Amino acid sequence: MAAITTAAAGNASAVGTWTGGVVPGTTFAAIQRTTNASGYAVGATAITFDNVGAQPITAGKWFKVNGHTNYHKAASTLAASTAGTVTLAEPLTEEIAAAATAVSVDLVADKVTVNHGITYDLPFAVWGDDTSTGVTIASAKTLSVATTLSTKLVCRGQLVINGGYTGLTEAAPLSASYTHDLVLNDSASMASGKYGITIGSAATDFRLAGAQKTNITEISATNTSSNFFVTSATGWTPGNVLFFGPTTPGISTVEVRAILAVNTGTGEVTLSAGVTNTNFVGRTVCNVSSNVRMSLQQAAIFAGSIAVTFAATTATDAIELCDVEIVGRAHTANKPHISANTKRS
Fold first, then answer.
1. Higher-confidence residue: 51 or 106?
2. Whole-angstrom distance, CA of residue 269 vs CA of residue 156
3. Residue 191 belongs to what domain range?
4. Smallest Cα–Cα separation from 74: which of 96, 57, 91, 54?
5. What is the pLDDT of residue 330?
6. 92 pLDDT band (50/70/90 cuts)?
7. CB atoms inside a 10 Å sphere around CB 261
8. Of 46, 73, 105, which closes a domain?
9. What is the DSSP string of 294-316?
């Protein structure tokens, strides 16, 4: 376990930015294991590996599969040089082919302190030492989200903002071409509501803003239970989650579905699964997704809100969350979450 601080202002991806010349939470060690099944689809909850490789796959560690994009957290342990199945902390978000080599993640237990102006330009990293000050941004210093690539930061421990977590504002949101994910409450010993965000006593900025889109619209024409037109679908993309208003008094007929395909020009929408209650012209549809997301690690198991704790209240503090998807529980096409438009300054 080490404490890594910024050595100079610059990009988080540059080794010269960090003490020791090591970018925290991004170093991988090949373990030479391969998947021994025919492949795994999106949504799979476990992966089976062969017995090649002297290193174990340890619960709580993250791994990446060669030739693939995303990162996955193991929820069970597989001993060294032993074949077996590893349960995943979250369902797969990508397809994984057979005979693919896995790579383990090191440095997930490093305390990270940002004491210079840093641009977060890492596609993925796990920062923090599993403590109440795991990731700390010093007073008058900033961690700014890069705007020219998709990024993800997993906080293993409390995120303490004494300076600024910013770079995305209502006036300059993240382009729809990219995504930013801020994942909270990661721990080697998971528990509900263990970690969140602390806003410090000094002047602080916490600003995130996703691409603007049509948040609320209505059905303008219906075809089938899974295909219809809406008045406006500006900014909608496949995978977005939609809430459908009730078809009768009360909330029992409210439904949640995911978009399979969409034509933003004509407003035609195709769902991954049809609605149960018959659509009608005028039915309210809300898009609660965003390309900027705050979520909890393993939220389907370890419940809790995304907590923001104020160490003190000052007139110079500012919180700005615009078109940000806030996931307090893991969501699928049928499980709700919330989206936020909030500004405090």
1. 51
2. 38
3. 111-211+291-344
4. 57
5. 38
6. confident
7. 12
8. 105
9. EEETTTTTS-----EEESS--TT
Spatial contact of 121 and 144, defined as CB atoms under 8 Å apart? no
Strands 308-310 and 197-199: parallel
**pTM, entire model:** 0.84
In degrees, rounded to 5, the angle at the alpha carbon of residue 225 between the alpha carbons of residues 211 and 293 is: 25
pLDDT digits (tens, 9 = 90+) for 140-158: 999 999 999 999 999 999 9
Domain count, the chain: 3
In a domain, 86, yes or no: yes
- Length in residues, the chain: 345
> Highest mean pLDDT range out of 105-114, 167-176, 298-307, 330-339?
167-176
Tell me, yes or no, whether 60 lies in a domain: yes
299 and 194 inside one domain:
yes
Residue 71 within any structural domain of the chain: yes
Tokens of 165: 């977590």
Burial of 135 (0-12, 13-18, 19+ CB in 10 A): buried
